[in-house]
Every structure is written in structure tokens, then in C-alpha cells.
Design goal:
This protein has one domain: START domain (Alpha-D-Glucose-1,6-Bisphosphate, Chain A, domain 4, 2-Layer Sandwich), CATH 3.30.530.20. Helices cover 23% and strands 41% of the residues. It contains 3 helices and 7 strands, in the order E-H-E-E-E-E-E-E-H-H. Strands 1-7-6-5-4-3-2 form a 7-stranded antiparallel beta sheet, with helices on one face. A hairpin with a 2-residue loop joins strand 6 and strand 7. The longest helix is centred in the last third of the chain and has 20 residues. The chain starts with a strand and ends in a 17-residue tail after the last helix.
């Protein structure tokens, strides 16, 4: 498994930043290689990606979610990965978004990309674009404010 941890400070209140992050269907606007995300239900999303010439589809499940604090997920099928995004109030108008992700590169190209830090660079770019997206939008988007407790480990 390969682990990535990246952060970005967003000039917006924690509630607004969290609310936008939970709008999963907007991810293609700032995540490179993400073509489409469909919110199937409160915990399941379906992803369509095109990365490095490889088109993939997979489902991911939210495993824990607490408003203004964290969203954790793991894939149900497809490329094996999971992680957590946390939201930290730095002050009334600034939020630190920290993404921690573990993934298992499958193909030789994915393994080479992991070794060269390409996925980490992509995540940094995605967080930077999220910051720009939030700061340019202004105002608070809608968001799902439900709480999903962490499932017991099996």
C-alpha cells in the first residue's frame, strides 16, 4: 500500500468547506481525471475516471462522516483505496483540509507513478483546485449534514 497525506488552507469557514466537500458530484470540477461521480445513496458513490489513458469505474462507500470534522471512505470494487478527509477550523474564515489516502497500485504503470510521486502530485493539485473553487465561489453551498458513525471492524 502507498500512503499520501496532503493539506491545503482554504479561505472559507469550516461549515462551507465541509458542505462543498460533501457534494461529491461536483468533484469533476476540481479533480483531475475524475469524469463523473454519482451519489447512489447516503453512503455509496459511483466513480468514472480517466487517468493515464486508463478508463475505470468503481464504487466507493463512506465509512464514517461527521459534519465539519471528517469524511472517511473505501472502495467497494475496482482500484483498492481508502482514506479520510478532515476539516480543521484555523479561525472564523480559514479551514485546513487534510487528505490522508492509502491505495494499492495494480499495474506496472501505477507502480511506477507511485514510486515517482505522481499520485501525490495529483492529490496536491486537486486540493489546490478545490481551494480555488471554494474561494472563487463565495457563499455557502448546500451540503449533506448527516452523521455516519464508524462501522465496527470485522
Amino acid at each position: 500500500m502507498t500512503t499520501i497525506e496532503k493539506s491545503v488552507d482554504v479561505q472559507a469557514p469550516v461549515r462551507a468547506v465541509y458542505n462543498q466537500w460533501t457534494q461529491f458530484e461536483s468533484f469533476p470540477r476540481f479533480m483531475e481525471g475524475v469524469d463523473r461521480v454519482v451519489q447512489v445513496d447516503d453512503v455509496l458513490t459511483h466513480w468514472e475516471t480517466s487517468i493515464g489513458g486508463a478508463r475505470r469505474e468503481f464504487d466507493a462507500r463512506v465509512t464514517e462522516q461527521h459534519p465539519d470534522e471528517r469524511v472517511a471512505w473505501h472502495t467497494v470494487d475496482g482500484p483498492e483505496h481508502g482514506g479520510v478527509v478532515t476539516f480543521h477550523r484555523l479561525d472564523e474564515h480559514t479551514t485546513r483540509v487534510t487528505l490522508q489516502m492509502e491505495y494499492h497500485p495494480d499495474t506496472l504503470i501505477e507502480k511506477a507513478g507511485a514510486a515517482l510521486g505522481m499520485v501525490g502530485n495529483r492529490v496536491s493539485g486537486d486540493l489546490k483546485r478545490f481551494k480555488e473553487y471554494m474561494e472563487e465561489r463565495g457563499g455557502e453551498p448546500g451540503g449533506w449534514r448527516g452523521d455516519i458513525p464508524r462501522a465496527p471492524q470485522s
